[in-house]
């Protein structure tokens, strides 16, 4: 399997050896999604283990982004979207009418495909979530949260002298790390990433990937990616989607070296998709 | 040979040229070398080369001809003395051209023994359906005859030249048809020229309007000092009897400007919250179905002529407010039927669709990814709107509001009917005030000549208004443009 570098393989093996059986953080059971008359997901059941990176792969239009967006109910904002089945967060049904969607999204944060910093200063971008949720009692605490989040997103050193300049003035990669810092600032339990590197150059991509690897110490991460190499580099578990179905899910190492399904093998070796 | 006939012939030559050109291009297409332009481009090029110069020439010639005819006629008119019957030379000229037009309707026999006096000519022409003024003079008849002769001569010369131009153009166009001729590019250049000409006309018209107001305003400032106009606090333009001295009147702009701004302010106070909130509802909350019904309905408001709003203010809102205030105070109506409040509210209703439609566009233009980002952090919709969408859209909204305000300041019909005519300076919104536009209408209504400050002041007012709204529009466009650079 030439897709995995030796270093990654070694790391994956180490992970495997050190791995405790992680608890299930989020769970989808027979999830179906309709956009109007069109069905996008056909009964997907997928577990998301805690403090691991789960990668969702598959060709365009296979439903992986749809599944990701239903994990924090971002699909609610799309007109005519209907969701069936059951999705739980810590064994709690997130589509239960009693659930507060706003609170759910604070627990399950999201980073989008294109960096979307608000047209505000860098500081205000990161402080946005804590302000809304009242996480800081005073200015000092807010400063601390912002600094900690920026540090976790490995952005602090690059921007510490210009915290009050516009966030939109940063480079693409910095903007995306700013968006990650913004998501971290509300202390979510799960972070969803929808192709976070697709608008970035290779160097910026490498930085974000490095960051994702660090973040899994503290957060459960689900990432949608088009890049096989990226899935292999950053994730511990991989789920392969095709035409709205979950084809296969398993440890990343196993998926890339010895997939059980032929479709997975064809996809990761570039024969279709 | 009449000009319209020449025009038709020129076009006909052009059409023939089109087909010949296309035919010629087709015949040149040997197959070995590809034609540079499609045959119909060659056709169009021949058409334009023949018809366009000829038509342009006809237009210029027609203008020059009428100028020439007038000059000749003026030189033939008897010198004006104190006892010339007709009041002005332009009136005399008008009569001569009227007679000349009438003479064209006579048969050649009648023309041969033309009556020598106007008294005889008038019934003859009115039998042909040409009505002439009563006080025409005998000496005008030979001048009119001469006018017609000159006219025919000029038209013939012009027509011949135009036709020659058309034929020459067609030959020039046809001779240029060959395989690699760039007819397509030539046609493109002419289209560009036509578009450019259209926009030039729009700009020149604006310049013309400003100049015409400027000259009248300068005449006005010869009799009233600019300081007295711009800083005067009393508006009292006495309509003096012609020739009466010493009753100049006072032309203070301040009370009018105050009323204009006050009424516009009340209108904005009413229109901005309603318009903005409905824009937010439509851009952020309304389902596509609701939006597709509500938005056109709201925009219908923009299509109502403002005079209709004026009626509404005059017969409904004004009396209602007056009766309401009477009921509230127990008898004394402290709100007058014509008041700042009445005009402001009705104008506000008129402005709602402008505010909401412009703001709606601007709010919708804020990228959806920003909304997603905010919602994804766990904020509610209204938090997202308040903290992300509106701040991002703010410059655009300010621009939209400025555009709306300049409309409010220039609005005429509503205030004419609803604001009153008393030029007061006060801060009580229940009293009548008046605006610049109302006074322009007042000063120009009636049978007046543009030679006294009482009427000329209207131009000074108009120019002032023009510059106020122009400044606001430029500022608004500047802000809107600056905002656009952010996202596109």
Automatic annotation (TrEMBL), chain A:
GO terms for cellular component: membrane. The keyword Nucleotide-binding applies. GO terms for biological process: phosphate ion transmembrane transport. Keywords: ATP-binding, Nucleotide-binding, Phosphate transport, Transport. InterPro entries: AAA+_ATPase (IPR003593), ABC_transporter-like_ATP-bd (IPR003439), ABC_transporter-like_CS (IPR017871), P-loop_NTPase (IPR027417), PstB-like (IPR005670). SMART domains: AAA (SM00382). Transmembrane segments: none annotated. Residues 26-268 form the ABC transporter domain. It holds the Pfam family ABC_tran. It comes from the Bacteria. One of its GO terms (molecular function) is ATP hydrolysis activity. Belongs to the ABC transporter superfamily. NCBIfam families: 3a0107s01c2. PANTHER family: ABC TRANSPORTER I FAMILY MEMBER 17. This is Phosphate ABC transporter ATP-binding protein. It comes from Phyllobacterium brassicacearum. The lineage of its organism: Bacteria, Pseudomonadati, Pseudomonadota, Alphaproteobacteria, Hyphomicrobiales.
From TrEMBL, chain B:
The chain crosses the membrane at residues 6-21, 42-64, 157-179, 191-215, 261-285, 297-321, 333-355, 388-409, 456-480. It is found in: Cell inner membrane; Cell membrane. InterPro entries: MetI-like, MetI-like_sf, Phosphate_PstC, PstC_N, RhesusRHD. One of its GO terms (biological process) is phosphate ion transport. GO terms for molecular function: phosphate transmembrane transporter activity. Pfam families: BPD_transp_1, DUF3708. Residues 257-476 form the ABC transmembrane type-1 domain. It is a multi-pass membrane protein. Coiled coil: none annotated. GO terms for cellular component: plasma membrane. Keywords: Cell inner membrane, Cell membrane, Membrane, Phosphate transport, Transmembrane, Transmembrane helix, Transport. The keyword Cell membrane applies. Gene3D superfamilies: MetI-like. It comes from the Bacteria. NCBIfam families: phosphate_pstC. Part of the binding-protein-dependent transport system for phosphate; probably responsible for the translocation of the substrate across the membrane. Belongs to the binding-protein-dependent transport system permease family. CysTW subfamily. This is Phosphate transport system permease protein. It comes from Phyllobacterium brassicacearum.
């Amino acid at each position: 399997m030439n897709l995995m570098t030796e270093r990654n393989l070694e790391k994956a093996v180490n992970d495997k050896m050190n791995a405790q059986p992680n608890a299930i953080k989020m769970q989808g059971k027979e999830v179906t999604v309709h956009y109007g008359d069109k069905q996008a997901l056909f009964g997907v059941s997928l577990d998301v283990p805690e403090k691991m990176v789960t990668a969702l792969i598959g060709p365009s239009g296979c439903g992986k982004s749809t599944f990701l967006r239903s994990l924090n109910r971002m699909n609610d904002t799309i007109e005519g979207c209907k969701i069936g089945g059951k999705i739980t967060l810590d064994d709690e049904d997130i589509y239960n009418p009693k659930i507060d969607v706003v609170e759910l999204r604070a627990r399950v944060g999201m980073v989008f495909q294109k960096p979307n910093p608000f047209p505000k200063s860098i500081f205000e971008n990161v402080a946005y979530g804590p302000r809304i949720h009242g996480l800081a009692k005073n200015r000092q605490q807010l400063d601390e949260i912002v600094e900690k989040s920026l540090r976790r997103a490995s952005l602090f050193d690059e921007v510490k002298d210009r915290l009050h300049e516009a966030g939109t003035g940063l480079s693409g990669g910095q903007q995306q790390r700013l968006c990650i810092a913004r998501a971290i600032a509300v202390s979510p339990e799960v972070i969803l990433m929808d192709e976070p590197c697709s608008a970035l150059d290779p160097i910026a991509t490498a930085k974000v990937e490095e960051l994702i690897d660090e973040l899994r110490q503290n957060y459960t991460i689900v990432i949608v990616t088009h890049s096989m190499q990226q899935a292999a580099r950053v994730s511990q578990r991989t789920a392969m989607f095709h035409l709205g179905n979950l084809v296969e899910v398993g440890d990343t190492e196993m998926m890339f070296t010895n997939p059980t399904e032929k479709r997975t093998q064809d996809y990761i070796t570039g024969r279709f998709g | 040979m009449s000009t319209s006939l020449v025009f038709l012939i020129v076009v006909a030559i052009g059409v023939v040229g089109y087909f010949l050109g296309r035919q010629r291009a087709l015949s040149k297409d040997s197959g070995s070398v590809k034609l540079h332009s499609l045959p119909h481009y060659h056709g169009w090029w021949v058409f334009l080369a023949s018809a366009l110069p000829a038509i342009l020439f006809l237009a210029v010639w027609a203008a020059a001809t009428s100028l020439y005819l007038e000059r000749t006629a003026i030189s033939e008119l008897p010198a004006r003395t104190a006892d010339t019957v007709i009041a002005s030379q332009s009136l005399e000229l008008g009569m001569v051209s009227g007679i000349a037009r009438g003479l064209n309707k006579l048969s050649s026999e009648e023309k041969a023994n033309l009556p020598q006096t106007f008294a005889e000519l008038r019934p003859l022409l009115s039998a042909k359906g040409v009505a002439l003024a009563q006080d025409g003079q005998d000496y005008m008849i030979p001048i009119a005859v001469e006018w017609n002769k000159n006219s025919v001569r000029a038209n013939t010369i012009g027509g011949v030249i135009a036709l020659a131009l058309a034929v020459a153009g067609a030959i020039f166009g046809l001779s240029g048809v060959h395989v690699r001729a760039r007819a397509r590019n030539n046609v493109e250049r002419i289209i560009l020229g036509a578009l450019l000409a259209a926009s030039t006309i729009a700009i020149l018209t604006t310049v013309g309007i400003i100049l015409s107001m400027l000259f009248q305003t300068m005449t006005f400032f010869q009799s009233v000092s600019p300081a007295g106009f711009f800083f005067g606090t009393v508006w009292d333009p006495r309509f003096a009897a012609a020739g009466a001295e010493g009753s100049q009147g006072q032309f203070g702009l301040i009370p009018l400007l105050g009323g204009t701004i006050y009424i516009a302010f009340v209108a904005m106070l009413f229109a901005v919250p309603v318009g903005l909130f409905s824009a937010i509802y439509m851009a952020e909350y309304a389902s596509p179905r609701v939006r597709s019904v509500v938005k056109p309905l709201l925009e219908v408001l923009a299509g109502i002529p403002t005079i209709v709003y004026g009626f509404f203010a005059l017969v409904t809102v004004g009396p209602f407010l007056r009766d309401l205030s009477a009921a509230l105070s127990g008898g004394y109506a402290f709100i007058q039927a014509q008041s700042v409040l009445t005009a402001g509210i009705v104008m506000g209703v008129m402005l709602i669709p402008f505010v909401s439609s412009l703001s709606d566009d601007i709010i919708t233009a804020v990228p959806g990814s920003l909304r997603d980002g905010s919602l994804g952090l766990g904020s509610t919709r209204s938090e997202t709107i308040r903290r992300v969408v509106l701040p991002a859209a703010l410059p655009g909204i300010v621009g939209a509001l400025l555009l709306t305000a300049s409309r409010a300041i220039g609005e005429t019909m509503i205030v004419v009917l609803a604001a009153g005519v008393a030029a007061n300076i006060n801060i009580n919104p229940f009293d009548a005030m008046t605006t610049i536009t109302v006074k322009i209408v007042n000063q120009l209504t009636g049978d007046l000549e543009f030679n006294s400050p009482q009427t000329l002041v209207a131009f000074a007012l108009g120019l002032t208004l023009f510059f106020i709204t122009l400044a606001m529009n430029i500022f608004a466009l500047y802000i809107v443009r600056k905002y656009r650079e952010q996202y596109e």
